[in-house]
Amino acid sequence: MFINNKSDCELLNRLKNEGMDVISIKVPTLLRCVVSVILPLTIAACGGSGQNGETSGADAIGASAEADSAEVVAATNAAASENVSPEIAMKMRAITVQDQSTTDRFIVKYKASSPEGKDTSAVGSKLARLRSAFPAKANHHRRLGIGSDVVTTERKLNASDANAFMRAIASDPDVEYVEPDVEMTIQSAPNDPYYFRQWFLKSNLTDKTSPGIRAEGAWDITKGRGSIIGIVDTGVTNHSDLSANLVPGYMIMGVAPSPGGFDPGLSSGSCGIPWHGTHVAGIAAAQTNNGVGVAGVAPEAKILPVRSLGTCGTGSLADVADGITWAVGGTLPGVPVNANPATVINLSLAQRSTCSQTMQNVIDFATSKGAIVVAAAGNSKEDVAQWQPANCRNVIAVSGSDATYGSWVSSNYGAGVDIAAPAGDIWSTFNSGTGLPAAESYSYMSGTSMSVPMVSGVVALAQAVLPKSLSVAEFRALLQQSAQPFAAPPDRVLGPGILDAEKTVAVAKSGVIPVAADFTCVEAENLMQVTCTDRSTARGGVPIKTWSWNFGEPAYPADLVRSVSVTPYNNYEYAGLYTVRLTVTDANGKTSTYARPVNVPLPPVVDLSAGVPKTFDKFPNDMTYLRIKLPSGVKSVTIKTTFAAPDQTAFMYLKDSPTSTNPACRTYGAGPLTCTVNNPPAGDYYGILTGVSRNSGTVTMSYSS
Prior knowledge:
Layout: H1 6-17, H2 27-48, H3 57-80, H4 86-91, E1 103-110, H5 115-118, H6 120-129, E2 138-143, E3 149-157, H7 159-170, E4 175-180, E5 183-186, E6 189-190, H8 215-219, E7 228-233, E8 249-251, E9 258-260, H9 276-285, E10 302-307, E11 314-316, H10 317-327, E12 344-347, E13 349-352, H11 357-368, E14 372-376, E15 387-388, E16 395-401, E17 419-422, E18 426-431, E19 440-446, H12 448-465, H13 472-481, H14 501-510, E20 519-523, E21 529-534, E22 544-550, E23 560-562, E24 569-571, E25 576-586, E26 591-600, E27 606-607, E28 614-616, E29 623-630, E30 636-643, E31 650-655, E32 665-669, E33 673-678, E34 683-690, E35 697-704
Parallel strand pairs: 7-10, 7-12, 8-10, 12-14, 14-16, 16-17, 27-29
Antiparallel strand pairs: 1-3, 1-4, 2-3, 5-11, 5-13, 6-19, 8-9, 13-15, 18-19, 20-21, 21-24, 22-23, 22-25, 25-26, 28-35, 29-34, 30-33, 30-35, 31-32, 31-34
């Protein structure tokens, strides 16, 4: 039913009074009719038709319709405006859709106590009620193991429509977060009797000619019996070097999971099939001393194949999240619980974005189950801070080295890398099929996808001999403190050194628990401010002596050094991606360093037209940010503010960024207030008012050319 004019509005009122459902009415009509509909309903609810404070059935229907109308209006307003509240902005901060991309899949997390959190049918009903607020019809697809929901739209949305859709979803107070269900991608480049080809398992610390991981010495101590490595990937193929080490896996893709975890190949089409999961599994835990093929890093550990990526090497964030959940023993609807929970999760995959909330949640869940998550830094020769899941908390991020003790040509890098491992020309299990699986074979591949299973294998070896289990932070410190030094500084930051299996396993067996740096950070809702909480540990009995913090701002490069644990914060001058680093040093001089990125977005701003006054009945927030665009050649920019009452005061600033840190102009008082900056740079320029959430007034920003 479509309402287009006054008579339609009268009909709408009559239908409402009769308790009929008109939720499918288009929102522009609803807005035109809202005064005539909601006001009578409110009056009725205040006492007209019931007796002794009771509410009639018609009143209850009216109240429900009023609530639905308000919900639709809120979602519509949020979708239409890029200037949303800090609460809405925080719900969709993790990932935004990039300018050139399209998507029709989203992940929404409702509060567990909400109707939608309790029942997936309520999610579908909510999406139907909000249809008119969305750029395209949305449907509930499935619930993930971590409690989030996959929601699909009937068409692919461009960046503008996708962000509008997420704003509409985030306007619901029962939504914790919403983000696109992005595509994850393998990080490889295709390139016994074959043990001589496995240079990466050897190492010679004296002549520096074989920069491998020193696996042979570790095998004298353990071969990893008792550990289980979950390979969340494309699945595996039948292979005599793998079969004895496989435990039953699962295919976790879409709405029809099935047992197995095998890679079925392609019955039609071609993508240059990488048989990626087979290759990765062989590096981690192929059998050894069996007279066949190659040796895995942890040849007596078990391989748990979880197929969450397609044969061509791509898959959704949602499928990867469910694959991790199942692998560590979590529950999925309609899927038997994994009888062999993974102690290590191998993620030889990546996607260019900040760490999504979905990925962080599932990694935290895996960690809570005692698993160690190892992830590829990526193959784009970029800062790892830009690539998930390596940039998430509670993972070990692995970069790639080469056969000359240098950087593998395409390895990502940066302070967020935890350890390096060989990445170039890695020989492992493969399949000869070009479509469907055929005869087993072996092949070279390159990439940080190959580095990750080496670290996963060493973690499995160490787990087999540990007297006490270690946290992710302690495992990170163990690997770093045991690392082989680079023969010469590599051309980019790859971590503190190259993985050393022998030393790692020896230290693990000794029972020494290393001092371990660890922290979490949160972003303020309405400030470009980050606050971090120290979570470092010293369970080995030697106390931490110093904590050295660095917030990654080029203007303030010096570390903040403290002799006690603190909760530091930093106000950033400009939005962007920054790397926070913490180094702890114990009383014996042992150090541990941990670094992870923080995404500092712009706070919600109000856009103004130059020279046009903007009146506020109440300013949006205690810190209100105003913005105009300056062309080139501007001689000066000015902000003027008047308040409605003489007792209303504020601080006012002008700057090329929405912050009161190092402003170009600053003033304070009861008003009228004026601030002017000469020769400002072209682009966005901001006026900032603080302490104004209870004030009313008029603001004008203008410039002279």
